[in-house]
Amino acid sequence: MLLLAVVAGMALSVQAAVNASLSSSLGVLKTAFLTFALGSLCTGLLIVFFQAPHAQTLLDVPKWQLMGAFLGVPYILIMAYSVKKIGAAVATVAVIFGQLSMSLLIDHFAWLGNAGVAFSSTRFLAMLCLLIALYCIYQSQWHSDQHN
Prior knowledge:
Number of strands: 0
Structural class: mainly alpha
GO cellular component, one term: plasma membrane
Order of helices and strands: HHHHH
Signal peptide: 1-16
InterPro entries: YdcZ
Number of helices: 5
Largest sheet: none
Keywords: Membrane, Signal, Transmembrane, Transmembrane helix
Organism: Acinetobacter calcoaceticus
Helix content: over 70%
């Protein structure tokens, strides 16, 4: 599963770079629309051909669980815009830092129906290392831009 998560992260970085390029031609909103429209079509086909039936429908689940569908919209919009401005590496590491920060809170407080995992010094160290990585990547890019 860890390897699959790494592959998913790689796919998100490629998606961010492609969407940034596409948004230069079509605009950020049309790019986001295209991403979700084609993604919906592909997912719909996967559901029709591969998804086993479930006892509950979208109308039966707690409504707060549907917010995940809306949280993808700001991500796509922000990445399509920001990658053009700050580059794929800085934008991606910034996103991962935001994900890690929120994930640590979700784990620690057992929010959103997840099992609790206590905040620890090693988790803090991981967050600090990622923050340092973000700073280093941003600084190296800034220095590179100054010399060009």
